[in-house]
Design a protein that fits this description.
This protein has 167 residues and is of the alpha+beta class. It contains one helix and nine strands. Strands 3, 4, 6, 8 and 9 form a five-stranded antiparallel beta sheet that branches. Strands 1-2-7-5 form a four-stranded antiparallel beta sheet, with no helix packed on it. The longest helix is centred in the first third of the chain and has 30 residues. The radius of gyration is 27 Å and the shape is rod-shaped.
């Protein structure tokens, strides 16, 4: 006489295996979904401008454009990447125009205090922050009291604007 598994125990085993497979598939799908739903999000932690009789560039590492002038503003922008993927700033706009249109070799520059040494692409890894110092010479159209819009454009096509009043 052979003994077989009762139908109740067989049903419990089949249901247990089905539940285990469903849980495994759910964890697998969650992992795949996380890969495809990554996003970049930059947060401007602070932005301010200071007036300076002379802009000091030698003490700051990562000088992108070296200029020499005696009067102007340092616009400091601190940016943190709070998204789930790395971000890359590929353009900086001042009042709606690319910053490079203001470069005249003597008055305007961008200094990246901690980050890349090229203005073409400024990487910001997830969870980190960088400090950009945008120096603007006291030339037309910039003067005391005006509001300057600084907009950071990323490689993903997102824009992060911040307005700063020049003291």
């Amino acid at each position: 006489m052979s003994k077989a598994i009762s139908p109740v125990i067989a049903t419990v085993i089949i249901v247990s295996v089905a539940i285990a497979i469903a849980v495994a598939v759910a964890f697998w799908m969650t992992g795949i979904t996380g890969l495809f739903t990554r996003y970049e999000k930059l947060e401007v932690v602070s932005a301010y401008a200071t007036y300076s009789g002379s802009i000091v560039t030698s003490a700051v590492t990562g000088t992108v454009f070296n200029g020499t002038f005696t009067r102007g503003w340092n616009v400091t922008v601190i940016v943190r990447n709070t998204g789930t993927s790395d971000a890359t700033i590929d353009e900086v706009f001042i009042n709606g125009r690319p910053f490079t249109t203001y470069l005249d070799g003597a008055n305007n520059q961008i200094i990246i205090v901690n980050g890349s040494t090229t203005i073409d692409k400024i990487p910001i890894p997830t969870g980190s922050q960088i400090k950009l110092i945008i120096t603007i010479g006291e030339v037309d159209p910039f003067s005391h009291g005006i509001v300057v819009e600084v907009k950071l454009h990323t490689a993903a096509g997102n824009e992060y604007p911040k307005s700063v009043q020049l003291p």
